[in-house]
Amino acid sequence: MTRVCLLVQDAYGMFSEVHTEGTIWNNQQLEGRSCSLTGVKVLQKATRGRTAGLFSLIDSLWPPAEPLRAPGPYLVCGEENTHLPPPSFCYILTTHPDLGRIDVTEDPISKFYQPPVTRSLRDVLQTVHPGTRCCFYAQVIYQRPQLSSLLLLEQREIWLTVTDVTLQTQGEDDAGLPHTMLVCVTSGCMLAPDVQEALTEAAPHNFLFRDALRDQGWLVCAERTVLLLQKPLLGMDTQTGSYELTGSPRLDELGPNTQVNSICSVQGTVVGVDESTAFSWPTCNLCGNGRLEQNPEDRGALSCRDCSCVVTSPLLRRHLQVFLHCPLCPQSTVKVKLLQASISSLLRSAACEDGTYEVQSILGKEVGLRHCFLQSIATHPAHCITLEEIELLKAGRASVESHRLPRDP
């Protein structure tokens, strides 16, 4: 049975959170409508100190759009609604499984309803204060961890790197703004089936993030945050303010302010190689798997345990981590685990006649801009930044929208 959480407000300004089953309103569109609730009971009285997340959502809807009915708990006679103190408590309600009902009493949208204000990521960074809720459209260009099945979504913290057209096409007045933002999807954020499926695909997707929390350095999707999967647009829609984001996204270069779990572009000069972790292994030239075994009956020929084929021309894969001197981090040791293509490019002129590689021939070589994920920053015994080269999600066409949508229950 689907469980649904509704945030409701009465004419006196009192908020309540209603926990109910998704079948009792018979698929009615409730958001913004005046409704009557029957068969409900109070579970608990919630206060700001105990349920900060709930009150951050209530604060985003305060003050009321219309004057409250007097005498209410928050209204003094003659006081303007713009000067009302925000609620200090609310009630958590639940519906009786057999007697609970939610009925729409009026067709028009209620005057108390406040549709969400959807902002661009640039506006979020410039105008939304930490600890407050915000709504925005964004394209996911990288995800960590990469999830191969829906089962891995359970009890996992997911880090998404997102961007939109306002961060990618910055003007002179946007100096200091990043080109991407970090979004942490906590295990408490309930995800719809289509969103879960999208997060297991190795492809970019566009989401509407509703009521996400602005943190100091990133955005948080926790309880009461809603993610809605958006369809990509085929062009610009001047009526709704929708934009098409095409091409390879621009990343910020690695610097002193780059955060752990974020992605960045890295370039520098090779000053060392981690020889203790350098190794190579053969893989199947048909399926790419490294589960090869020798067949003693066939003169030690290699066979693949996955595709059950004889491997006559195995492909050699390598693991290599290098130390770089980076212009923007001159006082830091920068260690990068390279992808296969970068390793091959770096070793192309360093091979010896016996098939080995000379470390000295690699030192001093330039490594051009690479997309990397920042794994960790250590300060002792030396300042060391550890990164892993990555590939961004391959995009066909993507969109970023800026029009309003109704707030989901």
UniProtKB/TrEMBL annotation:
Q: Secretion signal: which residues?
A: none
Q: Which Pfam families match?
A: DUF4503
Stretches assigned to the DUF4503 domain: 9-392
Q: InterPro entries from the entry? A: DNA_repair-scaffolding (IPR053054), DUF4503 (IPR028032)
Source domain of life: Eukaryota
Protein name (Swiss-Prot/TrEMBL): DNA repair-scaffolding protein isoform X2
Give the gene symbol: SPIDR
